[in-house]
Amino acid sequence: MAKLIGLTFVGLLLALYKNHQSSYQRRLNALREVTPVDLPNCNLVKGVETGAEDLEILPNGLAFLSTGLKYPGIKSFDPDKPGKILLMDLNEKDPAVLELEITGNKLDKSSFNPHGVSTFTDEDNAVYLLVVNHPDSKSTVEVFKFQEEERSLLHLKTITHELLPSINDIAAVGPESFYATNDHYFADPYLKSWEMYLGLSWSNVVYYSPDKVQVVAEGFDFANGIGISPDGKHVYIAELLAHKIHVYEKHANWTLTPLKVLDFDTLVDNISVDPVTGDLWVGCHPNGIRIFFYDSEKPPGSEVIRIQNILSEEPKVTVVYAENGTVLQGTTVASVYKGKLLIGTVFHRALYCDL
Ligand SMILES: *[C@@H]1O[C@H](CO)[C@@H](O)[C@H](O)[C@H]1NC(C)=O
Ligand SMILES: *[C@@H]1O[C@H](CO)[C@@H](O)[C@H](O)[C@H]1NC(C)=O
Ligand SMILES: CC(=O)N[C@H]1CO[C@H](CO)[C@@H](O)[C@@H]1O
């Protein structure tokens, strides 16, 4: 009898394991292969070799790129060098990148580890760059003022908060206020492995301002990119391991209510909203195993999708670019400017194409 119970117990554990194993494979989209989709005139951006995890393009064509991210368990081609913020002028014919010098004396540049970036432009046209930073595995948001003439960033402030333990991405709504997605990577990579493996969906979204900080959405299987519609009425959140994009209604008091959810066959990372058309451009990982377990023989591929009319009954979803990793590995973000597409990656290169 005892033996039977023992065997049943082992059987149960095996079934549980198998169940998790298959759900894990499904969440990571482990079996997906990429069908290539090409774009004309693609060029790798010179000077980007260690990632452009996030980027944002200002309406005047100046683009900020964060490079050199060190992320627990994820590949880095230069793990000993601090990260940087790069500037690219998309009005130039063959734009190159320039490292923005950081001025001010409160930021430790040797441990600078930039991740998500977001800009806010005030009524006097001053541009603030908010950067998620992970110095020594902590999570902070650094506020910079962009000095366009000097091509530098003046560091103004470091923001930390107990509700922001492990920030991934931010969407600025003021010089010191933003929505942020929290994953658990930096808070506790070990716990994160279990959370990821078991699909515990502990990830959330927090609204931060100097007077109020609150959780505005939760229960995500790895909340990643976040974006705001041009009219400021909707917030889009990418749920990486559930392959979903959530649309929320944004209220005057900054709370969010769920409106609709879109499903994809790819791991959706960062969302960039075209300020002119309102289209969403999403950098995606077609196969998550390859991004989380790097193998140079089977590198992670790249995929960029565009979503048009997201609020309508039938949004139009187009795969605009897809590639198996020979050219571009691990795309996280894509953004448009005047008929061109700039594509960034976690730890690899950046690609600039005609649309
Ligand atoms: C925020 O505004 C929404 C919409 O008006 C309302 O339903 C909600 O109760 C408000 N929440 C708080 C905490 O004030
Ligand atoms: C990726 O695609 C290219 C061109 O289609 C092909 O030559 C290459 O073998 C593929 N690589 C992998 C790792 O599948
Ligand atoms: C290009 C682009 O829009 N990137 C966005 C990635 O996501 C963060 C917020 O989650 C935005 O701040 C970036 O602008």
Automatic annotation (TrEMBL):
<dbReference type="GO" id="GO:0046470">
    <property type="term" value="P:phosphatidylcholine metabolic process"/>
</dbReference>
<feature type="binding site">
    <location>
        <position position="270"/>
    </location>
    <ligand>
        <name>Ca(2+) 1</name>
    </ligand>
</feature>
<keyword id="KW-0479">Metal-binding</keyword>
<dbReference type="InterPro" id="IPR011042">
    <property type="entry name" value="6-blade_b-propeller_TolB-like"/>
</dbReference>
<dbReference type="InterPro" id="IPR002640">
    <property type="entry name" value="Arylesterase"/>
</dbReference>
<feature type="binding site">
    <location>
        <position position="224"/>
    </location>
    <ligand>
        <name>Ca(2+) 1</name>
    </ligand>
</feature>
<keyword id="KW-0106">Calcium</keyword>
<dbReference type="InterPro" id="IPR008363">
    <property type="entry name" value="Paraoxonase1"/>
</dbReference>
<feature type="signal peptide">
    <location>
        <begin position="1"/>
        <end position="15"/>
    </location>
</feature>
<dbReference type="GO" id="GO:0008203">
    <property type="term" value="P:cholesterol metabolic process"/>
</dbReference>
<feature type="disulfide bond" description="In form B">
    <location>
        <begin position="42"/>
        <end position="353"/>
    </location>
</feature>
<dbReference type="GO" id="GO:0009636">
    <property type="term" value="P:response to toxic substance"/>
</dbReference>
<feature type="binding site">
    <location>
        <position position="53"/>
    </location>
    <ligand>
        <name>Ca(2+) 1</name>
    </ligand>
</feature>
<comment type="similarity">
    <text>Belongs to the paraoxonase family.</text>
</comment>
<feature type="binding site">
    <location>
        <position position="269"/>
    </location>
    <ligand>
        <name>Ca(2+) 1</name>
    </ligand>
</feature>
<keyword id="KW-0378">Hydrolase</keyword>
<feature type="binding site">
    <location>
        <position position="169"/>
    </location>
    <ligand>
        <name>Ca(2+) 2</name>
    </ligand>
</feature>
<dbReference type="GO" id="GO:0005509">
    <property type="term" value="F:calcium ion binding"/>
</dbReference>
<dbReference type="GO" id="GO:0046395">
    <property type="term" value="P:carboxylic acid catabolic process"/>
</dbReference>
<dbReference type="GO" id="GO:0005543">
    <property type="term" value="F:phospholipid binding"/>
</dbReference>
<dbReference type="GO" id="GO:0034366">
    <property type="term" value="C:spherical high-density lipoprotein particle"/>
</dbReference>
<dbReference type="GO" id="GO:0004064">
    <property type="term" value="F:arylesterase activity"/>
</dbReference>
<dbReference type="GO" id="GO:0010875">
    <property type="term" value="P:positive regulation of cholesterol efflux"/>
</dbReference>
<keyword id="KW-0732">Signal</keyword>
<dbReference type="GO" id="GO:0046434">
    <property type="term" value="P:organophosphate catabolic process"/>
</dbReference>
<feature type="binding site">
    <location>
        <position position="54"/>
    </location>
    <ligand>
        <name>Ca(2+) 2</name>
    </ligand>
</feature>
<protein>
    <recommendedName>
        <fullName>Paraoxonase</fullName>
        <ecNumber>3.1.1.2</ecNumber>
    </recommendedName>
</protein>
<dbReference type="Pfam" id="PF01731">
    <property type="entry name" value="Arylesterase"/>
</dbReference>
<dbReference type="InterPro" id="IPR051288">
    <property type="entry name" value="Serum_paraoxonase/arylesterase"/>
</dbReference>
<keyword id="KW-0325">Glycoprotein</keyword>
<feature type="glycosylation site" description="N-linked (GlcNAc...) asparagine">
    <location>
        <position position="270"/>
    </location>
</feature>
<dbReference type="GO" id="GO:0102007">
    <property type="term" value="F:acyl-L-homoserine-lactone lactonohydrolase activity"/>
</dbReference>
<dbReference type="GO" id="GO:0042803">
    <property type="term" value="F:protein homodimerization activity"/>
</dbReference>
<keyword id="KW-1015">Disulfide bond</keyword>
<feature type="glycosylation site" description="N-linked (GlcNAc...) asparagine">
    <location>
        <position position="324"/>
    </location>
</feature>
<feature type="binding site">
    <location>
        <position position="168"/>
    </location>
    <ligand>
        <name>Ca(2+) 1</name>
    </ligand>
</feature>
<dbReference type="GO" id="GO:0004063">
    <property type="term" value="F:aryldialkylphosphatase activity"/>
</dbReference>
<dbReference type="GO" id="GO:1901335">
    <property type="term" value="P:lactone catabolic process"/>
</dbReference>
<feature type="active site" description="Proton acceptor">
    <location>
        <position position="115"/>
    </location>
</feature>
<feature type="glycosylation site" description="N-linked (GlcNAc...) asparagine">
    <location>
        <position position="253"/>
    </location>
</feature>
